[in-house]
Design a protein that fits this description.
- It is a single chain.
- The protein has 7 helices and 11 strands.
- With about 325 residues, the protein is α+β, with helices and mostly antiparallel strands.
- The chain has a single domain, classed as paralog of FGE (formylglycine-generating enzyme).
- The radius of gyration is 19 Å and the shape is globular.
- It binds calcium ion.
- The site of calcium ion has 8 residues, from loops.
- The site of calcium ion (CA) has 8 residues, from loops.
Length: about 325
C-alpha cells in the first residue's frame, strides 16, 4: 500500500491519533534536494526500554524527544556510493541498504550529505564529536531511534507484541534467506518509516552503556560522554525476532578493522534537526518529478536494464520517472 494511501486510511479510521502525541499533526513526508525521502517526526514523550526486556533495557523510563527529520529508509548502496565513491556492501544492489559500514564511515556520509545540500556538517571527523545544533545530517540518538521505531506504540514492535506479525514488517532471521533486501519492501510503521525492524541493524549516535537507562536525562538524551562501543538498533536480516524488538539494544566498536566480524549486518539512516530550522533542501517530490535531473542520481529509474547496470554510475542514463509522493 502506498504511504499516502496508508496514512489516509489510518486518519480516516481515527487510529493515527493513538500513535501521535496529543494535538500533534500527522507526520509529514518530504523529499530532500538530494532525493531522499524523510519523515518529520513529531516531538513527544514515550516510554523507552522494557521492564520485561534484557537487563540493559531496564528500567523502562519516560523520555521526551524534540521533533526531527528521519530518513524513511535505510541509506541505500546507490546513495552511499554516489556521495562516497565506493560501495563496501557484501549484498550488492542499488536499492539494498549499504552495509559493511563502520560507525565512522556512516558519520562521514552524514557530513558529505550535509555539504552536498549546503547544510552545516554535524561531525568533527577528527574527534568524532557531534554538534547537535548544526543543521546538517547526523545519526539518530538511541532515544530518537526507539521513539521513531515505536511510532506511538508501547508494544515490543511497532505493530504489537506478537512476533508472529514480524514477517510482514521486517526482514529477519526467519524470512531473509541470510541476506539483506531492497529497502521499503515491508510494511511501514504508523509514521511511514520502513525497515526499522530488521534488514540491516542501524548505527545510532550514542556510545553504549548497559546501565545508561538508570540515569538518563529525560529530555533528548544523547548517550554517555564516552564508551568502547556505539549503539546499534533494530536487529537485522540475521537477527532473531527478539533482537528486532523496539527496545532491544546492541552495540559494536565504531571502527573495527575486520569487516568479517559482522559488519554485513550494520547499516544506518540519517536524521536532522527540525526545531529552529526551516526546511532548506526540502522540495516536494511533486516538484522533483519531471525535473531536469541535473542534480541527483536519485532520479534514476529502477531497475536499470542489464547494459545500463554495467555502466559506471556517472554514465547511466537520466530518466524522469520519479513518482510524486
Ligand atoms: Ca533496519
Amino acid at each position: 500500500m502506498k504511504i499516502q494511501t496508508c496514512w489516509r486510511v489510518v486518519k480516516l479510521c481515527g487510529l493515527l491519533a493513538l500513535a501521535l502525541p496529543c494535538g500533534a499533526a500527522p507526520p509529514q513526508l518530504i523529499k530532500t534536494s538530494g532525493g531522499t525521502e524523510m519523515v518529520l517526526i513529531p516531538a513527544g514523550t514515550f516510554v523507552m526500554g522494557s521492564g520485561a526486556g534484557t537487563e540493559d533495557a531496564r528500567p523502562a523510563h519516560k523520555i521526551s524527544v524534540s521533533s526531527f527529520y528521519m530518513d524513511r529508509h535505510e541509506v541505500t548502496q546507490e546513495s552511499y556510493e554516489d556521495l562516497m565513491g565506493v560501495n563496501p556492501s557484501k549484498f550488492e544492489g542499488d536499492t539494498n541498504p549499504v552495509e559493511q559500514v563502520r560507525w565512522t564511515q556512516a558519520v562521514k556520509y552524514c557530513n558529505a550529505r550535509s555539504r552536498k545540500e549546503g547544510l552545516a556538517p554535524c561531525y568533527n571527523e577528527t574527534t568524532w564529536q557531534c554538534d547537535f545544533s548544526a543543521g546538517g545530517y547526523r545519526l539518530p540518538t538511541e532515544a530518537e531511534w526507539e521513539y521513531a521505531c515505536r511510532a506511538g506504540a508501547a508494544t515490543a514492535y511497532a505493530f504489537g507484541d506478537d512476533p508472529q506479525g514480524l514477517g510482514a514488517h521486517a526482514w529477519f532471521k526467519d524470512n531473509a534467506g541470510r541476506k539483506s533486501h531492497p529497502v521499503g519492501g515491508k510494511r511501514s510503521n504508523a509514521w511511514g518509516l520502513q525497515d526499522m525492524h530488521g534488514n540491516v541493524a542501524e548505527w545510532c549516535h550514542d556510545f553504549y552503556a548497559a546501565d545508561y537507562y538508570r540515569a538518563s536525562p529525560a529530555q533528548d538524551p544523547q548517550g554517555p560522554a564516552a564508551g568502547a562501543k556505539r549503539v546499534v538498533r533494530g536487529g537485522s536480516w540475521a537477527g532473531t525476532a527478539e533482537k528486532c524488538a523496539a527496545w532491544y539494544r546492541a552495540a559494536e566498536a565504531q571502527s573495527l578493522p575486520d569487516v568479517c566480524l559482522g559488519y554485513d549486518i550494520y547499516g544506518f539512516r540519517c536524521v536532522r534537526r527540525a526545531s529552529g530550522t526551516t526546511t532548506p533542501a526540502a522540495t516536494s517530490a511533486t516538484t522533483r518529478a519531471g525535473g531536469d535531473c541535473s542534480d541527483g542520481r536519485a532520479l534514476y529509474p529502477r531497475p536499470l536494464n542489464t547494459a545500463e547496470a554495467h555502466l559506471p554510475r556517472a554514465r547511466r542514463p537520466c530518466r524522469q520517472s520519479v513518482r510524486a509522493v
